[in-house]
Known about the structure:
Blueprint: E1 49-53, E2 59-63, E3 75-80, E4 83-92, H1 94-103, E5 114-117, H2 120-130, H3 133-147, E6 152-158, E7 164-170, H4 178-188, E8 191-196, H5 199-206, H6 217-220, H7 230-235, H8 242-245, H9 260-267, E9 277-278, E10 283-290, E11 295-300, E12 306-310, H10 311-322, H11 331-337, H12 339-360, E13 368-369, E14 379-380
Parallel strand pairs: 7-8
Antiparallel strand pairs: 1-2, 1-4, 3-4, 3-5, 6-7, 9-10, 10-11, 11-12, 13-14
Helix pairs in contact: 3-4
Amino acid sequence: MSCSCGSGKGGKTAGCNNNGACQTGGCNKMNVFDWLSNMDMPKEEKFDIVEIRFKGGRKEFFRNSEKLHLTTGDAVIVEVPNGHHLGHVSLQGELVRLQMQKKKVANDHEIKKIYRLAHQRDLEKHQEVQKRESPTLYRGREIIQQLKLDMKLSDIEYQSDNTKATFFYSAEDRVDFRELIKLLATEFRIRVEMRQISLRQEAGRLGGIGVCGRELCCSTWLGDFKNVATSAARYQNLSLNPSKLSGQCGRLKCCLNYELETYMEALEHIPKVEGPLLTERGEAQLQKTDIFRKIMWFGFKEDSNWYPLNVDRVNEILRLNREGKKPATLTEDAAIIKQPIAKLNSDLESLDRKFKINAGKRPQGGGNQPNRNKNRGNKPTNQNNPNRPRPNQENPNQPGSTPTNRNRPKPNRPRPNPNRQGPNPNNPNSKKD
C-alpha cells in the first residue's frame, strides 16, 4: 500500500515520514484523497477546520485556531474533554467543509481546537500508552466473564495523556455495566468510558479480508451503514443461504446493495408471473429468470427439461390466459430463441459442403511450369491430361506409385559409374560389358 501522507519538497515523504509504513492504523484505512490539493483556489482565507484521524479509522473535526502549517499525515495534539489526545491529519481545506455538510456537523464553538504539532516526546509517550491496550483488553474480557455480562469487548483506545480509556463493546440488548466500570477503574486506575458499537462498526475497527479477496469495505472506505434486507438477494436471484450472504460481522453483506438499483431497473421490463402458465400440454412453472438477457425458463411437472421464453412470448401467454385461452405448447418460442443457433448451424453445414467440394478438385493450370532445378530446364506439365498415370497405393510396381510399407528394406543395386562410357554404335570395336 502506498503512503497517504503527502509529498514534501524534493519528492520526499512529508507528514509522518515513514515511507509507506504508517503506524496510524494503516495508510489504506478510511483514507481520503485530497483532489483539491494541487489546484489553484481563489485568494480567500483557507478553511480553518481540519479532519483528524484516530485509532480504528475514527475521525473528528478540530479547529486550527493557531494557523499552524499542516500537511496530511502530521501528528498533532488536539483538545479533548479533560485532557489532550494525539491524532493525525487526514484532510484539510475545502473538502473538510463538504465532509461537515455531509455528516451534518455544525461549524460552531463546540468544535475543539488543535494545540500544536506533536514532538518526539509526545510520539514516544503515545507508543508507551498503546502498549497497555492489549493487556487491558484481555483482563477486561476476564472481568466480563466473571460478572456474566452478555456483551463482547472488541477494542480499547487509551488517551495519549494516559488518563482515560474508551472501551468499545457490542451487545444485542441493553447491558447494566455500572459494576463493570467500578472494577475497571479500580483495576487500571483510569477513567473509563463505555461506548457501544454495532457489529458492522466492530468489523470495521478490527478489519479483515472478505470472500472477494479484498479488504473489508467497512474498514477501508465505507462509513455509512445502510440497512440490507433479504429482498436485495431475492431481486438478484441469489441463493438465500445465510452462510454465503453474511459477512464477517454476522450480518448481511453491505455489497448486496451495490448493484440493487441496476437490477431494479432491469426488473421493470420483466413480467410478474404469480402463477403457472396454462397451456394445452399442462401447467408450466417458472424455474429461472435471466434478468439482463430477458429470458425466462419454464418447466412442466412431468418433464425435466426447461424451455427458454423471451419476455414478449411470456406476455403473450399471460394475455391469452387472462382471456381464457391456452396456447398449444411453449416450443414455439423455444424455436424463436433457437433460430439464431439453427441459422448458424445451417451456415456451417453449407460452408462444410463447400470445403468438401473444393477438396476433391485438382489445381488447374496450363502451359509449362518453371522448374525449380535450373540445370534440368522446364518440363511440360500434364495435369490436364486425363490419361496421365496416377499414384496407386495397391500396386507398388506401377510408375508414380508410392510403396505402402516405407520401412521395407531396399535391394542392393550396383550404382552406375559416371566415368564409364557406354558402347558406341559407330565404333564396331566397342563392346558392352
